[in-house]
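Example record

Each entry pairs one chain with its bound ligand, zinc ion.
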Amino acid sequence: MPSVASRTPNTEHLVSSYKTSTKVVSSSKGAETLLSPGRIPTVVRGLMANLPVTDIHTHLFDPAMGDLLLWGIDELLTYHYLVAEVFRARPDLRADAFWAMPKTGQADLIWQELFVNRSPVSEACRGVVTVLTALGLDPRSRTLAKFRKFFSGFTATRYTDTVLRLAGVEKVFMTNDPLDPAEHPIWTKGFPRDPRFLGVLRLDSAVMNWPDGAPRLMAMGYAVDTSLSGKTMSEIRRYLNDWLVRLDARYMAISLPPTFRYPDVTSPLTDLMVKAVLPVARERNLPVAMMIGVKKLVNPELRLAGDSLGRAEIETVERLARDFGAVRFLVTMLSRENAHELCVAARKFKNILPFGCWWFLNNPSLIRELTAMRLELLGLSFIPQHSDARVLDQLVYKWTHSRAVIGGIFAEQVGRLALSGFRPTAGEIARDIGRLFGGRLLD
Ligand code: RAT
Ligand code: ZN
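Structure tokens for the complex follow.
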């Protein structure tokens, strides 16, 4: 079986430039030398290439959670970003025919259409190429047979170690939904936790489209009623408290539609946020992540690939931050316009922490724009990126691509600073990028 460990992944050039700059940082004299503007890009690139990263939002699972953790070539190719793209390449393809195919058939089709019949230039396609190359596999292969053989030699645990090493990712935040029928029994039974995978209590299924979540909450022993009356709110708070403890969750998270408003006396969702979620967050001193702007299933036949985006009202975020000053809001927004408004809102409210270039914004051209804007408006007080990986292998490409783009923008900004008269040391650069990517802003 080919062993990744014995191969030289093609990220080697990045690692060697890292070593050069680590030398600069680790020799105390080098670390304190003021850098000329010309030296800054090399030092930043080197440091960024191997920076241990904390990934604050993924859809990955602790390997001990079995099949919930997706990995390997068939999962990589049937990622919903690529599913959307295959229907563009093959307009004659019927959605029901596609979904009726086995996963391997879907993957073969996507490979043929997006990687063999045309060049894989989109970001999601290029990502697969980056992963294969880093694993020492040939992205110009015409079939998937060799890839499947390669992946069959791994266990989930060993592959997790390989991917985290190649991606330079130290910690991964999961997205955990206790109401999910596949996830629930795993948590109730319990399992030895991998300390690299941190729990996050996802709220969507419990509080979105109320009373959709009510029957499942009732089945779990929470005395809620569909009209949100009586002790329903306190029972939902009990649910949140119980599961935050069980998951050892580091924050609560929800994805919200562009129509989400606060205040809004007519909305059960707003009511639940204000009377259950935010009070629990305040009591437990845990952040609440709001991911705002998703329009679910604008094209239902595409399933997970059928969601779109819409512009939300920034005033809602501002009012929540103002009225719940003791709650820390991690916020990411899906529309480009909102991303700018969010930066300004964060300047006004210290309890707003913008994070990541989310989903349709997670493309180099937009990452560049967002990162430059955030550095200029917020200095070092934001979290530049999360991966949103659904398939373990994606950590390799999402972080390789983001490191390169964000590192370049950071180097430009620090270079301008040097030209203005503030020449940084390599030690200071290491400190600052560590602050941005190390997850410490969450503590
Ligand atoms: O980026 C994605 O994979 C989306 O489908 C969503 O999962 C989104 O990131 C979310 O967390 O709701
Ligand atoms: Zn996500």
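The radius of gyration is 22 Å.
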